């Protein structure tokens, strides 16, 4: 069964009512260093973006990252259905920085955009 344009618009408006927070989406820019390598910097591209952030699981263990033990943690960010965001972008929410790991964009009649994040320590 297909939704009418009005039904889909109403569902999207209902979904927006459940976005209680705001976040900033940052995009990366690469520039060449003096010794021929690359450095990545992030700039605030979208600010005051309505969102909802929730942990997927709280007890995920640890892993070795850069010769240090890092806690594993995954979060899901819900955004407006047509908010621009890409894998590799960063999200700032409540003074914490997260990296976009995956975007769920494969379903029809999307009422919200769901983004899987991992925290940047």
Q: What does the model show?
A:
The protein has one helix spanning 5-16, and strands at 21-32, 38-57, 62-65, 68-71, 74-80, 90-93, 96-104, 112-119. It is mainly beta and 121 residues long. It has a single domain (5-119), classed as Bacteriophage SPP1 head-tail adaptor protein (Thrombin, subunit H, Beta Barrel). The chain has a 6-stranded antiparallel beta barrel with strand order 1-2-5-8-7-6. A two-stranded antiparallel ribbon has the order 3-4. The radius of gyration is 17 Å and the shape is elongated. It starts with a helix and ends with a strand.
**Widest β-sheet, arrangement of strands:** 1-2-5-8-7-6
How many helices in DSSP terms? 1
How many strands appear in the DSSP assignment?
8
Major β-sheet, in short? 6 strands, antiparallel, barrel
Shape annotation:
elongated
Order of helices and strands: HEEEEEEEE
Low-confidence stretches: none
Class by alpha and beta content:
mainly beta
Global mean pLDDT: 84
Mind telling me the C-alpha Rg? 17 Å
CATH superfamily: Bacteriophage SPP1 head-tail adaptor protein
Q: What is the highest CATH level, the class? A: Mainly Beta
SSE map:
Elements: H1 5-16, E1 21-32, E2 38-57, E3 62-65, E4 68-71, E5 74-80, E6 90-93, E7 96-104, E8 112-119
Antiparallel strand pairs: 1-2, 1-6, 2-5, 3-4, 5-8, 6-7, 7-8
């Amino acid at each position: 069964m297909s939704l009418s344009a009005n039904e889909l618009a109403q569902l999207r408006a209902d979904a927006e009512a459940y976005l209680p927070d705001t976040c900033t989406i940052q995009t990366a820019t690469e520039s060449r260093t003096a010794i021929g390598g690359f450095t990545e910097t992030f700039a605030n591209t979208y600010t005051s973006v309505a969102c909802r952030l929730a942990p997927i699981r709280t007890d995920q263990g640890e892993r070795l990252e850069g010769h240090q033990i890092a806690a594993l943690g995954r979060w899901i960010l819900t955004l407006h259905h047509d908010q621009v965001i890409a894998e590799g972008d960063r999200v700032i929410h409540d003074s914490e920085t997260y990296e976009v790991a995956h975007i769920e964009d494969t379903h029809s009649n999307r009422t919200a955009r769901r983004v899987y994040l991992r925290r940047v320590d």
